[in-house]
Amino acid sequence: MTERQIKILKALIEEYIKTAEPISSDFLSKKYDFGLCPSAIRIEMQFLIKSGFLEQPHTSAGRVPTDRAYRFFVDALEDYRDRERQSVEQALNRILNRQTKDQFRLAGNLTKFMADNSSALAIIHFLNHDISWKEGWDEIIKEPEFMDLEFVSNILNFLDNFEEKIKELNPQGIGIYIGHEIPISKSRNLSLVCSICPIPNNEKAFVSILGPKRMDYAKNINLIQSVNKALSDLI
């Protein structure tokens, strides 16, 4: 891809993450200074379609990212740290410092914290005890994707198979599984950000955020990194 095509693709993905609406060349032309008219942007978008980065819903003039586009976008993120990270880490430390003696209570509150800060479904699974905590249904049902029955079915499918197939997820550092990359179930509308974190008493916890493929990757990766660091600091 040319530098211009990369800029157009990144802008389209960022806008789609915000709006959940297909993005048109007219919209990009008005909002971004690419130095191109809408027709020239459409030509670049046609290249991105042929290259497998964009697709066009049948009923829309706009375009939406493919799994390949999201993977390119995530791999191109240079720095997951954002200006909110310090406040997130401070809040995490308050939770952990209060409850290190009660691991189960800590897991419950930590899962709720992750759900509140990600607008997605947060899951923590203690690998030694084979116990899971799940929070965030009240957040994820607000997402426009929840109106799609296939999306709902994919989430339920994932949760049905999660504990049985969790060993198939073995992320090195921060794991980012996009759409069909998720090995647990057919989840083409979902993405998963996760990590295996150490916790006291020689335990390990699988910490994860499950949401629409349109999720805010930088924010959720940053959140998982913060949780991993906070838990590691307890050891």
Provide a descriptive summary of the structure in words.
The protein has a 5-stranded antiparallel beta sheet with strand order 4-3-7-6-5, sandwiched between helices. Strands 1-2 form a two-stranded antiparallel sheet. The protein has helices at residues 3-19, 25-31, 38-50, 67-76, 85-99, 103-118, 137-140, 149-165, 217-234; strands at residues 54-55, 64-65, 121-126, 131-135, 175-178, 190-199, 203-212. By secondary structure, it is α+β, with helices and mostly antiparallel strands. Helices cover 50% and strands 17% of the residues. It contains 9 helices and 7 strands, in the order αααββαααββααβββα. It has 2 domains: 3-76, Arc Repressor Mutant, subunit A (Orthogonal Bundle); 85-234, Beta-Lactamase, CATH 3.30.450.
Number of strands: 7
Q: So what's the CATH class of the largest domain? A: Alpha Beta
Total DSSP helices = 9
> Structural class, from secondary structure content?
alpha+beta
**N- to C-terminal separation?**
45 Å
Q: What number of structural domains do the residues give?
A: 2
